[in-house]
Amino acid sequence: MKNILLILTDNQLKKQLKNTLRSSLIHVITANNQQEELHLIQEQYPDLIITDLNPLKISEYQRIKRIKEVSFLENIPLILLNKHDNLANYFKVWQLGINLYFSPSRDLDNLNKMIISLLDQKSLQISSNYE
Predict the structure, then answer these.
(1) Which residues contact 29 (CB under 8 A, 6 or more apart)?
(2) Which of 17-26, 47-56, 64-73 has the lowest mean pLDDT?
């Protein structure tokens, strides 16, 4: 079973996404605060991380950057959910190494399909590395 870590500040979105992912037989781990997120990352080894942190806020940009700097996470897909779908954000998001930038106001079923696709791609990469 795949592990997904949710680092979401929007509790309603967290609940909706958690239910959607669990229906796809995905184990969902949630972080409730900054201290917990790095601890869970190192303890649970997530296959994918989903966050709604705003990379335009310096402190949240630093948090995302710190997450991506954890050595074993460099190949872990990171999805950023952001209500402010703005072209100006894309470059900053790309610099952080975020795999998918998605507006949560869009269809959660499509997001679920993209998550499963990213997990499948990651599994293919891992199996090709062992061949």
Answers:
(1) 3, 4, 5, 6, 40, 44, 46
(2) 64-73
pTM: 0.82
**Closest by CA position to 76, among listed 105, 111, 47, 101:** 47
Residue 3 and residue 27 in contact, taking contact as beta carbons nearer than 8 Å: yes
CA distance 25 to 129: 25
Residues 69-83 have pLDDT tens digits of 776 777 788 888 877
The matching CATH number, chosen from 3.40.50.2300, 3.30.70.240, 3.20.20.80, 3.90.550.10, for 3-129 is 3.40.50.2300
Pairing status of strand 27-30 against strand 78-81: unpaired
